[in-house]
From TrEMBL:
Required for morphogenesis under gluconeogenic growth conditions. This is Putative gluconeogenesis factor. One of its GO terms (cellular component) is cytoplasm. It comes from the Bacteria. Its main location: cytoplasm. It is found in: Cytoplasm. Belongs to the gluconeogenesis factor family. It comes from Arthrobacter rhombi. HAMAP family: Gluconeogen_factor. Coiled coil: none annotated.
Length: 330
């Protein structure tokens, strides 16, 4: 276990995967989480109470929980969802206990960061969890649709839940956040500035990974940090959100929305890269060195295995440490 400082950015299951791996390498982790979710329990709480969507924040906390009986028990409590009796409607239907607990802390303390700190203490979390912005965000994007006359027209899709499925038939473009000038969480900006490594991805490319580059203050922080930057690729590139996109096209999305951002390393499972030459070329355009390693679970190639991912992260970190030492000696 090292004292290396890591800031991990993303949301949902992708961020949980990277956190589950990173916690095996260091205790100094800051998870920076997207806050544009408008579906499920998070969407209901956001609409009804005007709060940040808590679901992805809850999942990040659960991924960082202490491995003691105490930590695992409270993780399971946080992740538990209410299900009504058959034929009985309940206002708690599908709400996660952790979502309600986090919102309760926010209301009592009047501060999102403080509430997450208290929730983390309950879980014995190895690290901190922060929202990327202090206000709820809305995400939208354009898709091509066919009119009744057979011509193509652009249609803007609003909301994370809708956009996550919009790419099933056509490519998503012109993705944007609103408010466009929303403030980034100050503590998140500090964590990026002070980190040794910043990890971006894996996760839903347009709705979990890209939002961090769409928020102006956060994009500037990522571009200017002295930290190394590592982009973790998804195991499956052809999803509802990114239908028909290659691994290289995923990298081109990053370059298109943040042309001044330089990436130091890109980590990919070989099975997810259909054209290695095109992928390496796209990585070079970002300034990145490619690393390949098997990080999928044995039974499900769409799910990252934490131990394998941790080993690959460690290899990347050590490779750059050796290069730094070699340059200093020269």
């Amino acid at each position: 276990m090292t004292t290396m400082r890591v800031a991990a950015l993303g949301g949902g299951h992708g961020l949980s995967a990277s956190l589950s791996a990173l916690r095996r390498l260091t205790n100094d982790i800051t998870a920076i989480v997207t806050v544009a979710d408008d579906g499920g329990s998070s969407g209901r709480l956001r609409r009804e109470l005007g709060v940040l969507p808590p679901g992805d924040l809850r999942m990040a906390l659960a991924a960082l929980c202490d491995e003691s009986d105490w930590g695992r028990t409270w993780r399971d409590v946080m992740q538990h969802r209410f299900v009504g009796s058959e034929g009985v409607e309940t206002s708690l239907e599908n709400h996660a206990v952790g979502n309600l607990l986090i919102v309760t802390l926010w209301e009592l303390l009047g501060n999102a960061v403080a509430g997450l700190r208290w929730a983390g203490a309950l879980l014995g979390a190895r690290g901190a969890v922060l929202p990327m912005s202090t206000v709820p965000l809305n995400i939208s994007g354009e898709v091509l649709t066919t009119t009744e006359g057979g011509s193509l027209s652009r249609r803007r899709i609003h909301g994370q839940a809708a956009l996550a499925e919009a790419g099933n038939d056509t490519l998503v473009s012109n993705v944007a956040l609103s408010p466009s000038d929303a403030p980034a969480c100050p503590e998140a900006l500090d964590a990026i500035e002070l980190a040794d490594w910043v990890i971006l991805g894996p996760g839903s490319w347009y709705t979990s990974v890209l939002p961090h580059l769409l928020l102006p203050e956060m994009r500037d922080a990522l571009q200017n940090t002295p930290a190394r930057r590592l982009l973790t690729m998804n195991l499956v590139t052809d999803t509802q959100e990114t239908s028909g996109m290659t691994a290289a096209a995923h990298l081109d999305v990053i370059a298109r929305y943040a042309p001044d951002l330089r990436i130091d390393a890109v980590l990919a499972d070989p099975s997810s890269v259909d054209d290695e030459q095109a992928f390496r070329a796209a990585a070079r355009r970002l300034g990145a060195e490619c690393f390949f390693g098997k990080v999928a679970t044995g039974h499900d190639r769409a799910v990252h295995e934490p131990l394998r991912l941790a080993a690959e992260y460690q290899d990347v970190f050590e490779a750059f440490a050796r290069n730094t030492t070699r340059r200093e000696e020269e």
